[in-house]
Design goal:
Layout: E1 4-12, H1 37-51, E2 59-62, H2 64-73, H3 75-83, E3 88-91, H4 103-121, E4 128-129, H5 137-145, E5 150-153, E6 169-174, E7 177-183, H6 186-194, H7 202-215, E8 225-231, H8 242-250, E9 261-263, H9 266-271, E10 279-280, H10 311-335, H11 342-348, H12 350-353, H13 359-366, H14 372-390, H15 395-398, H16 405-425, H17 429-437, H18 449-459
Parallel strand pairs: 1-2, 1-8, 1-9, 2-3, 3-4, 5-7, 6-10
Antiparallel strand pairs: 6-7
Bound molecules: zinc ion.
Length: about 475
């Protein structure tokens, strides 16, 4: 008996819209009649998909920054995601392109993503979604080192001739570490995402697209698997009524004739290999699902932007800022005789960010010998580290032009981090940041990065840099 299997993975994520100074989302007139785009996407996608009971039949990841907003804004929907998340995956915390991050930042982003998941879902995650599926072998090794068993990649991210996406593979990472990689079906996923006429009728999609893919073809295998992986917002937000499509696809009416395949979750696929041990494979380093030029989209020039000359200098400016902040924090930890180090303190600080532990309790546990003033000082510096991590969210580099809201948002995160450190340590990090931002310009407006930075601050009523 060889049954074909379909797994649908939804990557639920929105760029953060939080004002780093208030922790609230400002009004976005373009989202009217809703207060902001998070609320609008929730009404069109998160809430209806949760209400329809579709989530238990899916694999999904719910980005931690989005999940945190949802828990405040719509606790009922958030609770449905948690209760129906038996096959949920974690996500690297700030949606950072990990192959472009330092080793320390990779470790923290993964650790925060795992810890946030644990606090939210009440268990350790088995899998972790890599933002933009951006990957290299070092990132996979760090995932495995932190106990992650599998991730999802695009089939073109396999090295040497690609992968047969109908079966999972295993990547040997050396040192007794390995990780399972599930490749999504590029044709089915692209149809679901970009061919609205193909998803107008779920039964027809199942019959004409999925069944033919799984059961037809010249090279049949036992228990073939198809994984459809897309942005979760596709289902109801990017495309109207596709929440209904999704429901019918993964939870057909009881009377529906056998479609020739079963709905499975990735968790079950990975946990119970159909054909014995997964076959070995190697992956192509520095690749992703949304840039066909590797990971150039988030730090250089590629065909995804007409004029991407602003991207490398923006990243360089942030990297200089990040390095300077780290030196200040590391020095302060040493001076406070806490026997703590940046990596360890920062990895643990996610409990404060996630609201699981009051900052004072965290400081008292962590630095028992330090006096109250020192503890406050160190907490402020860790808050700077938080925003210094947030400024690397991939959204800032995704689009064509740094004048867009997503880039302004990462600039605000950078400003928040720089201003905290300048305030408590007497440094001039913001001044140098502004100088560094002035070396690139918006392709559409001609405004330089320093001017865009001033606009980004003005958006939330923050004073211009001195
Ligand atoms: Zn590209």
């Amino acid at each position: 008996m060889t049954r074909a299997r379909l797994a649908v993975h939804a990557h639920f994520y929105q760029p953060s819209r939080l004002d780093p100074w208030t922790g609230r989302v400002p009004v976005e007139p373009s989202a009217a009649p809703f207060h902001d785009w998070n609320e609008r996407v929730n009404a069109e996608c998160y809430k209806p998909n949760a209400d329809r009971g579709t989530l238990p039949r899916l694999s999904f990841d719910l980005g931690p920054t989005l999940a945190s907003w949802l828990a405040d804004a719509d606790p009922v929907t958030h609770q449905r995601f948690v209760a129906d998340g038996a096959s949920a995956m974690a996500q690297a915390y700030h949606h950072t392109i990990l192959p472009l991050a330092s080793a320390a930042d990779r470790r923290t982003e993964i650790a925060w993503g795992i810890r946030d998941f644990e606090l939210r879902f009440g268990r350790r995650p088995a899998g972790l979604w890599l933002p933009e599926t951006a990957v290299d072998t070092a990132t996979l090794r760090e995932l495995a080192r932190q106990g992650i068993g599998y991730t999802i990649l695009a089939p073109w991210q396999a090295a040497l001739g690609g992968a047969d996406s109908r079966r999972p593979y295993q990547v040997d990472l050396g040192g007794d570490h390995e990780i399972v990689v599930v490749f999504f079906d590029s044709g089915l996923s692209a149809s679901a995402s970009f061919e609205p006429e193909a998803t107008a009728d779920a039964d027809r999609f199942a019959r004409e697209r999925i069944a033919t893919r799984l059961l037809g073809g010249p090279d049949p295998i036992d228990e073939p698997l198809a994984v459809i992986a897309t942005d979760g917002e596709l289902y109801g937000h990017h495309q109207q009524f596709r929440d209904l499509f999704l429901q019918r696809l993964v939870a057909p009416d009881p009377g529906t004739a056998d479609r020739g395949f079963d709905i499975v979750t990735l968790e079950s696929v990975v946990a119970t290999p159909a054909h014995g041990p997964h076959q070995p494979i190697r992956i192509a380093d520095r690749t992703s699902w949304s840039c066909h030029h590797g990971v150039a989209r988030w730090g250089g020039e590629c065909a995804d932007a007409d004029d991407g000359r602003w991207k490398a200098p923006l990243r360089a400016a942030f990297e200089r800022l990040a390095g300077a902040i780290d030196v200040v924090v590391e020095t302060a930890l040493g001076a406070a005789l806490t026997r703590d180090d940046l990596q360890s303190a920062r990895d643990g600080y996610v409990d404060v960010v996630a609201g699981a532990k009051p900052a004072e309790a965290f400081a008292a546990e962590r630095w028992p010998a330090a006096d109250a003033a020192t503890r406050i000082h160190l907490l402020e510096l860790l808050e700077a580290e938080r925003w210094r991590l947030a400024m690397f969210a991939s959204d800032g580099w995704f689009w064509d032009d740094p004048i867009r809201p997503e880039t302004r948002q990462v600039m605000r995160a950078a400003a928040r981090a720089a201003r905290i450190v300048d305030g408590v340590a007497g440094t001039r990090l913001e001044r140098r940041l502004v100088e560094d931002l002035a070396v690139f310009s918006s392709p559409s407006r001609g405004l330089d990065g320093a001017a865009i930075y001033a606009l980004a601050l003005d958006d939330v009523g923050q004073p211009a840099p001195a």
